[in-house]
Amino acid sequence: MSPTKTKKKTKAKTPTTTGRKVKRTTNHVGRVTRNRRVSKNGSAHKKGGSTRRRRATAQSMAAAQRDISVSEFFAKNRHLLGFDNPRKALLTTVKEAVDNSLDACEEAGIVPEVWVHIEQMGNGRYKVGVQDNGPGILKKQIPLIFGKLLYGSKFHRLRMSRGQQGIGISAAGMYGMLTTGKPVKIVSKISIRKPAHYYEIQIDTKKNKPEILNGRGDGIDIPSGEKGMKIIRKQGIEWVGHYDAEEGVTAKEVRSGTRVTIELEARYQRGRGSVDEFLQQAALANPHVTLHYEDPEGNQNNYVRTTTTLPPEPREIKPHPYGVELGRLITMLKDSDASTLSQFLTESFSRVSSAMARRICGGAKLSTRARVGRIGRGEADALYQSIQNTKLSAPSTDCVVPIGDELLLQALAQVLPGEFYTAATRPPAVYRGNPFQIEVGLAYGGGSTVQKVTQEALEELLGETDSRTLRQFLITTFNGLGPDGAEKILQESSMGTRQSPGRLKTKEIVQLHSAMKNVNLDEGQSMQVLRYANRVPLQFQHAACSITQAVLKTNWRSYGLSQSRGSLPSGPVSVMVHVASVWVPFTSESKEAVANYPEIQKELRLGLQAVGRKLGMYMRRRQRVKQQGERRNIFLRYLGEVATAVSTINRTNRDDLYNRLLRVAEKRTAEADVKLDSRGKVILDNESEFGDNVLIVDSEPHLSA
Amino acid sequence: MAKRARSRSTNTGNGNSRLKVRDKRTLGQLRNLADGVVTAANRSRDPYVDIPTRSLSNVKYSPRKRIIEMGKNTNRRQLFNLSQAKSYMQTMLVGSGCKRLIEQGKTLSIRGLYYMLKHQIEGTKENTFEEQGECDTVIEDTEVLLDSLREELHLYADKRGDMVGNITLIDSGDEIDCSRMGSGGYAIPSIVEPEVIQFDRKKTTAKFVLHVEKGTVWQRFNEDKFWKKHNCILTHGAGQPPRGVRRLLNRLHSELKLPIYCVLDNDPWGYYIYSVIKQGSINLAFESKRMAIPEAKYLGLRSVDYSRCDLSSSVTIGLTDNDRKRAKQIASYAWFEKKKPWQREIQMMLDNGFKLEVEALISKDISYVTETYVPERLRKRDWLD
């Protein structure tokens, strides 16, 4: 609680000792309270000639009390935005830029193509360039979008989009500026005919205002064509002028788009929570996007789109009355141009017909024709209560656009190796008046990332890591590899858990690599949870996230996975959960975890259970097949003994009897192979028995399995 | 399955030729069993055996004969049934083992047979038998299945139980005077059939048999030369008496007409030992005819002895829930159900809430049990029937 202006006024009236020089202090909160106590209970102190020095006066404090700019606040609290450490800063910067690019492209109906380029500029400094083929940004908007926090198109509307607040990219720019002193460089082009604009922007953190550095505060125009490209290149910007050339066709020119280049203090490291992982996961949830990624080592990674159809455009909706708090209602009343209360209600909210408006007004004992401007605080409160008590239909949910089962399955099968895939989309639901929808995908089987890594990649990873021990390196670098798995690998390779990963000899690396390939990790592996919110992968704060909690609370044991209490199930299984909503409730501005609303929790649970059931069916079938094999084995095992025993007693030909018994055994287990399932149906070996949205890949069993 | 009737004469005769007759019958039974498998295989059917059930549900108390008899229920054991495949295989193995023993004219302990048959199944790490308990039940199954006694299969159990007293017997041709057995006594062999043991009626003067529960008590009686004073035979069965001891008691009773008195602990376990001696056991109901002694008497310890003998509470052992359950179970057995004194006895133990071991009497005096307690019971003819 910081002192407010009203307090300041009352303070000014209290008698104070004067004539002392006041020291400015930022930590004044505690002092104010103490001061106030003194002035209220003045009797507690000797008045006048007290020897006790007063630390500050109302006036002196008033001098220190001033506006805090949003930029200043976030510059100090950059962890709130995901700039806790250099490694995360790099990721957040890329993430914000990519999110914005994709939002812009989709809104303009352009099939997105995004270029990401990270380059090391010196020790601990990286240059991040992200370009899209979006509609471009108008000249006058560029400085505001990139140079002012909390400026954007997405905050004031209810529409499903990746970005929400308008903080992200400008915060990234600010972070770059604070750590390297370099401005944000933006090139934007809105048409192939018009020249591109080039801006170098800094944020005035005190005023939260953009400052344009080039072209005497006006930016510069860059002509199209080769001449312009030269100018751009001179500024250290890698503008991509043409799409990748398809075979036999000349490369098409990029007609419009925006490229933002930020230089920042960062650290590049692969593995969990890295830029590489983010882009891979982003590609998974956005099958219509092509991503080009050049990492600091110059490796070019391309994630090519699997579909050219854009997801349907999400509709913007008006807020639902249930989701509006009293304060917001009052503001809305104040801002409304509607003349009557009825008009206000029907126009500002969704799902309020004039009949409903009449009912709400009736409940609040207000006239439907009451002037909106005349509604006072008390009346607004009555109106608010009346809204809560009126039964309204849930908000329309067609404004939420899920990825869709089919695309989800395709994407899962492409990115995660496995043998069984399933997906489930829950019907849309509502929390606090905001529609949302849950999608869950699940992949089972296949090797983990540990088994796919090449030896060269492993060497690089070992060189980059800052883990102190090998065990820690394995756990933090590879997704889904639990401590048990790491121990197994280290045991197989006969290396100490506490060995330093940076100092391995080539021979030892070869040893480690072969151990990683050969160890059966199915048991030691724990479930990999891929979390998405509005198609954006969430990589941090798993524990705080509603999605992880829902996964933990689900009883996976009944679906054939092993799971110890309060932990993720183990096995070669990945779950992908997508929360789509017009307003995803994040726990913080860095958008790393979804908040725990009971409605969301419930839908997550149901979605996870839906894929769990399908997995359970698959697991049971696998189990059955295994059991029948075992069954036959058991019979075969004892047949020999029985035949020997019988021939000892009555001297029949042992082998003859054995063969006859063998035939009986085969007949018996063949019958068992087509045994009926619990519902009395003959079990067929195909996907249809699982219902929709299941994909089974017949894969060769893993060597070590 | 074969008829249950068993042709057997208790008369002595040429032991050797009779052995062969008996073995021929057993071998025939074994061959029937094996042929059944071959027939089933030839018809591509599941081979199975029907084994008479050895449980309470399949025993009947015959009030006329006053023994427990086996019912007609059988359990089917199939080769092509996951839970039964192994025990089916084991049954066949035991059959083949017995066949070899009979052919070679040798006998083995059941532990010996276990070792003979135990081996790793080809191509696996599994053993035919993991422990002797597994083998023992299969042997019992085979006995009822083939309607052959253990000795007919050339098997015997580990011997347990000792005997001492005024009796002379001939064991495999050696004359044994049980009154000259020192402190150790004569160890009762597992097989005490007339072919092995014959009684010397002339040199036997004993008037009754006192059977005690375990070796320690037996030792007490032997040291005090109880059998000399009272002219009797003293036996013990180390807890639940094995078949050798029960068969010997049965022969002493039926051939020498000696009454049998039991001194057992006052607990459900002791009651059941008495029940087994008297009516036969549930598990081996098929042997009751030659094992049970319906005239056996229960001398003690009785629940009333706590107050009657003025015992201190420190020698009592509290009843566990299991004990109570077992006591109620025993009380409901058909052969106890109609006996009011027994119902009173069991009820009294339950009311007392504790059990008493025979050793509890030692707290009165070291030789109280041999010099006072048992003589007094015998004199007063105070026992339970």
Summarize the structure in short.
The complex is a heterodimer of chains A (705) and B (385). With 705 residues, chain A is α+β, with helices and mostly antiparallel strands. In chain A, 39% of the residues lie in helices and 14% in strands.
How does this structure look, described?
The complex is a heterodimer of chains A (705) and B (385). Chain A has 705 residues and is an alpha+beta fold. Chain A folds into five domains: 5-66, no CATH class; 74-303, Histidine kinase-like ATPase, C-terminal domain (Heat Shock Protein 90); 321-389, Helicase, Ruva Protein, domain 3, CATH 1.10.8.50; 400-447 and 526-705, Ribosomal Protein S5, domain 2 (2-Layer Sandwich), CATH 3.30.230.10; 449-518, Helicase, Ruva Protein, domain 3, CATH 1.10.8. Helices cover 39% and strands 14% of the residues of chain A. Chain A has 22 helices and 16 strands. In chain A, strands 1, 2, 3, 4, 5, 6, 7, 8 and 9 form a nine-stranded mixed beta sheet that branches. In chain A, strands 10, 11, 12, 13, 14, 15 and 16 form a seven-stranded mixed beta sheet that branches. In chain A, helix 5 (86-108) packs antiparallel against helix 7 (168-180). By secondary structure, chain B is an alpha/beta fold. Chain B folds into two domains: 15-46 and 81-156, Orthogonal Bundle (Arc Repressor Mutant, subunit A), CATH 1.10.10; 162-380, Dna Topoisomerase Vi A Subunit, Chain: A, domain 2, CATH 3.40.1360.10. A six-stranded mixed beta sheet of chain B has the order 10-7-13-12-14-15, with helices on both faces. Chain B has a three-stranded antiparallel beta sheet with strand order 9-8-11, with no helix packed on it. In chain B, strand 2 (59-62) and strand 3 form a beta hairpin. In chain B, helix 1 runs antiparallel to helix 2, helix 2 (85-104) packs across helix 4 and helix 3 (110-117) packs across helix 4. Chain B is globular, with a radius of gyration of 23 Å. Chain B starts with 14 loop residues before the first helix and ends in a 5-residue tail after the last helix. At the A-B interface, helix 21 and helix 22 of A face helix 1 and helix 2 of B.
